[in-house]
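From the pipeline queue, job 12 of 40. The input is one protein chain; the requested action is below.

Action: predict structure.
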Amino acid sequence: MSFVKALLEDIEQKVWDIEGFLDKLREEEIVVWGTGLAGVMICEALEHLDISISFFADNNREKVGSVLCNRTVLGMESIPKRAFIIIAANVKYEIHKQLKIAFLDRYIYIDPLWLYCYKKNNVFSMLKENADAIDSVYNMLSCEISKNVYRKVLLHRAIHDIRLIWEIYDEHQYFGNDIVKEAYGNFVDCGAFQGDTLISFLKQSKGKYNYFALEADKENYDILKKICIEKELVSVVPINIGVWDKKGQLYFQSSKTTGEVSGKIVESSNEERVIVNVDSLDSILQGEKIDFIKMDIEGAEIKALQGARNCIKENVPILAISAYHELEHLWEVPLLIKEINKDYDIYFRHHMWNMADTVCYALSK
């Protein structure tokens, strides 16, 4: 039996009655535990589904009594006893144990990203329609851990069982894990944000290598550049550009103005989108010797890989490519990497407590 056929049978047996669950939620007094981005996302996702929450709750005493999304933030002691609590937090914080001690036993952990993306894709149909491609990826994976990660990520997308994600969660993203124990050499950071990966890299490399920090968002880039100046990071080259398959100008939509999960490059304009310069890695790097390419660019990974063909063929760098922004990227990313350069072993790891940060790794054989 093929991998996808077995997966689809598993999905049919375990699928979550999300519609029934949402109908029941409409009758509940709902408290969302967590006042970070995950909590806000759950609140907004439920509102889009015509479900209103009553309160937020948090352990942080400085937040108790404040207002978030027009709702009061409660402390544990103020949560109504019959409230239904949606936990928007990593299970490692063991919020459920605290709730039980307080005799609050009506709760559920929900993946905020899954709920936010609910109804955008018919996962079962997409898996069925792309069975051959998915089977090809599963069969090419270079270790059993990767196969386990791949299966559980796809299964979670279809049925929402966040326990599947907790079972495969590895917090060491890009390097410092069992796939890439240590990053070295000239590093290309596509989606450098405000320098989070940069700081981790510098701790182990001590500035011995060139670091190309590419960031499309002007606000993030300005923060990144300021860090480089203040810390005198002469080996770091910050570039305010979006990574694409060719040189041009596209548009950047900020998460602050659109309500999307994160900012990203798009090909059409509106009044809330700003023009952004884009280019291919082959053009940006101009033949520079590259040892590692990391990408987390909010769905532009396919275009970016296509624009890095020469670099990938000639240098065979370690690749750590985000493959979670679109469902189809879970098979399109590894297949494209192998098409560009067949001399790679392919791995998957998952680095977030929710649906985010599934990474496809490619290492030379």
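Job complete. The chain has 16 helices and 17 strands.
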